[in-house]
Amino acid sequence: MKQKIIIISALALLLLLIIFMVKDFFFNNPGNTNPYQFELDNIRKGDSAKAVFAETQQIKTSLEEIHGIATDTSGKIYVSGKDSVAIFDAKGKTVNKFRIAGTAQCIAVSENGKIFLGIQDHIEIWNNRGEQLAKWASLGTDAVLTSIAVKGENIFIADAGQKVVYRCHIKGYLLGKIGLKDPATGVPGFIIPSPYFDLGISKDGNLWVVNPGRHSFEKYKFNGTLLSSWGKASMATEGFCGCCNPSNFAFINDSLFVTSEKAIERVKIYSADGTFLCVVATPDQFESGTKGLDLAVDKQNRILVLDPVKKMIRIFEPKK
Amino acid sequence: MQNRRDFLNLLCRGTILTGLAATTGVLAYRSVKGGNCDLGTSCNNCKKSESCDLPEAALFRQTVWQLDPTKCIQCGRCAENCVMSPSAVKVTHVYAMCGYCDLCGGYLKPDTKNISTAAENQLCPTSAIKRKFVEDPFYQYTIDEPLCIGCAKCVKGCGAFGNGSLQLQIRHDRCVNCNECSIARNCPSDAFKRVPANKPYLLQGIEAKPEEKNKV
């Protein structure tokens, strides 16, 4: 009897040992206990509680690469990309599509309907029928044109490569350079660690330029006088994250700023003095690693976000 | 030669003898020169590859382990799986790519409230990254290598929020070049490979300036 108990106990112990070994061999995942694992998923979730906008429409562009978006006064949407420009109506129907030579990184449409394209180092002007009206000379071998704004006879061109904003006449000649570092006038100089450098003209007729390395917006007169700036570097929703943000912006309701960021892909709205107002789109609405979410606002005050990864225009409107 | 049958008989025997002689010669050569090499086993898995005299083993010894930053997923296992303590894998700063950012994703925790050098704001668990003001708004980040344990937290942060100038590399002043690298065995992304000993680093982003690779 005693011997039987010993044998049963030994077998039970052996069974336990086998179970332990099998678990150790096959079910122990060292990744689960890695003390140095650094998870960024929580950051990418974003603050959806502050999102007061909802995505209401998506427009597929059918372009190979998309980089720039603009709207005109009639509500048409213009998208520039690799070798092509596409024009859509407000409902997303293709109005026209024409081929260009090269990749248009940025696009702007003047009040009289002329299309301005920034293609690597030079500007080209087209009409909406796909006819080239002008091609300007190169702005330098190091030029990387990333944004254009048109106001009357003034054209402002952001050059991320040479870290300067050019003010040109609509006929193509240079009127001046804006943003070059000058301690005497308090201009800090643009810091552009990556090729995202946006500008725009506000309703009150001033030039706003992103200084991405300083995580700030700078307000200039057309003659280059620095008037003011705002911005705060922070990973929190209220600030601009990463090395250099915001990557793009647009104006809504005349004076509010719609901004987009890379690294933490999010779209937000700020007041004219830089007070954070609300979230338009949270990081989980974009593919991880999406960069260059160019923005535009149409005449219905819808926010158009160009998603270069999904190759579509994503339209956001206030939640009802 | 009496007839055709005798001729064929002699030819077959001659062929068999030649084959046997050749096989014996090869085995004798390997026995004397190369030890007991297991045919069909690569030097990578052979325990005698460090002392073997075979030409392929000599070639194998002229290569070293290195981590390919393009494949690295910053899982953190390099810190724990190396036979050396701390790990022979350390972060390397490619200054040519660095943005010298104030809000550095490789230096600061993502949820930090203030941008400062306070320990609670630092992402590195051993404070191996030093931050130094250069000029407004630039900061230089240097690696205190003896403190670095190769956990890759900073690499992930820099890649996610910056230009990816922080990259993991096996430092050959520490690596003992094991036949079977224990980190490579546990690497989930197969980022470890043998590279020529005269080009032992695989840094990304400085291809245009090869002289910088030699400074590492």
List the helices and strands and how they pair.
The complex is a heterodimer of chains A (320) and B (216).
Chain A: H1 2-26, H2 41-45, E1 53-60, E2 66-71, E3 77-88, E4 94-109, E5 115-119, E6 122-126, E7 132-135, E8 145-151, E9 154-159, E10 164-169, E11 174-178, E12 199-201, E13 207-211, E14 216-220, E15 226-230, E16 248-252, E17 256-260, E18 267-270, E19 276-281, E20 295-297, E21 303-307, E22 312-318
Antiparallel strand pairs in A: 1-22, 2-3, 3-4, 4-5, 5-6, 6-7, 8-9, 9-10, 10-11, 12-13, 13-14, 14-15, 16-17, 17-18, 18-19, 20-21, 21-22
Chain B: H1 4-34, H2 55-61, E1 63-67, H3 78-81, E2 89-93, E3 129-135, E4 138-143, H4 153-161, E5 166-170, H5 182-186, E6 192-196, H6 210-215
Antiparallel strand pairs in B: 1-6, 2-5, 3-4
Tags for this entry?
heterodimer; A: 320 residues; mainly beta; Neuraminidase; 2 helices; elongated; B: 216 residues; alpha+beta; 6 strands; rod-shaped
CATH C-level category of chain A: Mainly Beta
Give the N-to-C terminal Cα separation of chain A: 80 Å
Report strand order across the widest sheet of chain B: 1-6
Task: Report the structural category of chain B.
Answer: alpha+beta
Q: Which spans of chain B of ≥5 residues are poorly predicted at pLDDT below 50?
A: 210-216
Number of distinct beta strands of chain A: 22
Radius of gyration of chain A: 26 Å
Strand order of the largest sheet of chain A: 2-3-4-5-6-7
| Overall pLDDT of chain B | 85
The helix count of chain B comes to: 6
Pick out the low-confidence regions of chain A. Answer: none
Instruction: Find the biggest chain interface.
Output: A-B, 26 and 33 residues
**Within the CATH hierarchy, at the fold level, what is the topology of chain A?**
Neuraminidase
Describe the biggest sheet of chain A? 6 strands, antiparallel
Query: Total domains of chain B, how many?
Result: 2
